[in-house]
Here is the input.
Amino acid sequence: MKNKYGLPYFVLLFSLLLPNGFINARPAGKKTKLEIFQPGESWPDQDGNHIQAHGGGILKINKTYFWYGEQRGKGLDPNFRYVSCYSSKDLLNWKFRGNVVKMLPPDSLTSGWILERPKVYYNPGTKKYVMYFHLDDKGYKVAQVGIAVSDKPDGDFKFVRRFRPLGHESRDIGQFIDDDGTAYLVFEDRPYGFRIARLSKDYMDVEKEMTLVKAHMEGGAIVHYQGLYYSIGSALTGWNANPNKYATAPTLEGPWTEFRDIAPPETKTYGSQSTMLIKVTGSRKTTVIFLGDIWRPKTQYDSRYLWMPLNLGDGKLWLPEPQPWKMNIKTGESSVVKK
Ligand code: GAL
Here is the structure.
């Protein structure tokens, strides 16, 4: 007996019992179409594979979003480091565009080297896509950024150079593009705090420091909303979650307020760590989404994502308890979906 998928019922029943059963049950050739965001769940791309874009960043080009992140899928060549690229029109349904970086260690870095938290900027002057990432040795002592460049959003990106921005140590990096298009890098400079610095005209260098926020925070993310800058960071606890905090300032130079919790501290940001904030400006509403990673250090290929619209305004920011939600990308409106 066959069902509408053309599969015998016992096959369908068996596949539904597998983890991610709905993915396995998808008939070959049929694209996965998602309706709701499910924070913390496995997030299939259009081919049904869990998205591999950890510690990532989002770039919007016209109406297309590109999601770049650490590719930590199973079965990759351990000599290489990979950055993946996905594209989407609605931030929910993502098409895998390939591994746009596949890199051997640059000179003097040896096995166990690190490439983390890739972020891509598009430079309208040079028409180049410029990727920044955290580059390090096994012990996180090198503390540099690396730059790779491409003519197209989906690569390939060619490695150009590595350096310490403005001579400072740089571990976790974050990306911020202001409403006027100015591009900034956020980077963690132990033991001072985190710095926000403007990129050079061609984005190939970090040119001018805007501020040093004297807080020991990483996973830095910034959004400009209703005339205020909101900055989120995580404490330095490696792969373990901690209570992420936020501060606000009228300008990037500051003055920055004290840091306050973004969620009940005992939830440790609901097990996640900040990587970016994105602002979706629709015809009716502007929604700011918290993008966090739920790391699974022993099974990194299965690390998850916590994306959730924030409550923010008047200098206050709050991450609601994660629940399934949906968004209308045209109007910018989002709502929680009752279970
Ligand atoms: C975290 C950092 C991650 C990764 C990890 C390694 O603190 O945010 O990007 O570097 O440490 O332990």
Summary: Confidence is low (pLDDT under 50) at residues 1-25. The pocket of beta-D-galactopyranose is lined by residues 55, 116-117, 172, 218-219, 236, 238-239, 273 (CB under 6 Å). The chain has three helices and 23 strands.
